[in-house]
Amino acid sequence: xxxxxxxxxxxxxxxxxxxxxxxxxxxxxxxxxxxxxxxxxxxxxxxxxxxxxxxxxxxxxxxxxxxxxxxxxxxxxxxxxxxxxxxxxxxxxxxxxxxxxxxxxxxxxxxxxxxxxxxxxxxxxxxxxxxxxxxxxxxxxxxxxxxxxxxxxxxxxxxxxxxxxxxxxxxxxxxxxxxxxxxxxxxxxxxxxxxxxxxxxxxxxxxxxxxxxxxxxxxxxxxxxxxxxxxxxxxxxxxxxxxxxxxxxxxxxxxxxxxxxxxxxxxxxxxxxxxxxxxxxxxxxxxxxxxxxxxxxxx
Length: 299
What we know:
Layout: H1 2-17, H2 19-34, H3 43-56, H4 61-67, H5 72-90, H6 99-102, H7 133-141, H8 143-155, H9 160-177, H10 184-193, H11 196-221, H12 226-250, H13 262-274, H14 276-297
């Protein structure tokens, strides 16, 4: 009981200390509370898969082994069961049934499954062109996270609410792909070959290629709501373009990053949802980014 109380307080402390991760986590929890599936039987296996993914990303197993020398496996199982039931019964549409009990024996496996990921299992993504270097670097470092994120976005197309929630979650991670600045030499070399508009277009095409299955699934599942997909397309692309143009508007060769923060995320998300404000900001960003690039590359 003391351990669970400690974990509870620790969760709130971590959310306060890391706003970047707390916003997506809270969005996911909110989505899980209101998520409505076609049948009651879908909830237990879906949430078990989420618990399995959570276990896969755990980094505190060595700590638990030291503190609970003989019972650390049971602690892992207990934590997983508690989180599972909180998520399951926290959903406003779920009605308790026997299916939830059938999943419980599977949690014993978590005490014997190692969450360690082999580093040599990472995919190299060599087929991505070098001019999409931000994406190439991100995907190489976060292969499993990116793959999981894409699957979640594609699956979220089953309902308009989950579709937009998953989009907002994805945008937070998308923002950090463009947070780091390349060095001055690389910037000069790149923009002597490509213009800013070409970079925006090529990156936009790549992002939309990743989202294409989600667009298609949504249209198949909700053919009567085709206007919604147009809004979704505009919202996603406007936010993406705002983040990318902001990078070069803020760029300075002495700075390692463009200091993306929660305030920027909220501002750009709201503006992109409203569409028109985002268009005006985008025009300003493109103009100022182009001027900034010219100071390094020339005309």
